[in-house]
Design goal:
mainly alpha; elongated; transmembrane helix; membrane
């Protein structure tokens, strides 16, 4: 026999994160567009704006990603920051303290975004489960399938 059940009733699961390759593709495209826009508006001589914008992009991408996507997201953003947001454009360089700081900022931003999303999803799931504590007291014995 078929039993019709409303889809919206009951506990809703926590949303699943977006697949890592999709997040990395978004990081690639977003960093490319963001650095090109900043280079045309601000110029390549002020990488602080590009670092702030790419950190915000990494945090926003972290909101829908898994924790395992964070290092790749940070690395892709750093590649565009290092390769195109500082002179000479198109050449990757490594300056120890500066690039380590940039990579750390981008990684922390991606991890903070992911942790914040997990925390908000867990809090929302907890609130959904405990939304109406008085309804359990109104049930009569035998109303739940676990009563014997």
């Amino acid at each position: 026999m078929i039993e019709w059940v409303s889809v919206s009733s009951g506990a809703r699961p926590v949303p699943r994160p977006v697949a890592t390759p999709v997040v990395w593709a978004a990081a690639f495209g977003g960093a490319l567009v963001l650095v090109a826009l900043l280079n045309s508006v601000v110029g390549t001589d002020r990488p602080g704006f590009a670092l702030a914008a790419l950190s915000l992009l990494a945090a926003l991408l972290g909101l829908c990603a898994r924790f395992t996507a964070a290092p790749g997201t940070a690395l892709l953003c750093w590649l565009f920051l290092n390769g195109f947001a500082i002179p000479p454009a198109g050449i990757l360089t490594w300056v120890g303290h500066r690039d380590t700081f940039w990579l750390t900022c981008l990684l922390v931003a991606a991890l903070v975004g992911t942790a914040l999303a997990r925390l908000l999803h867990a809090r929302a799931a907890y609130r959904r489960l405990t939304a109406d504590p008085g309804s359990a007291a109104a049930l009569e014995p035998g109303d739940t399938p676990y009563d014997t």
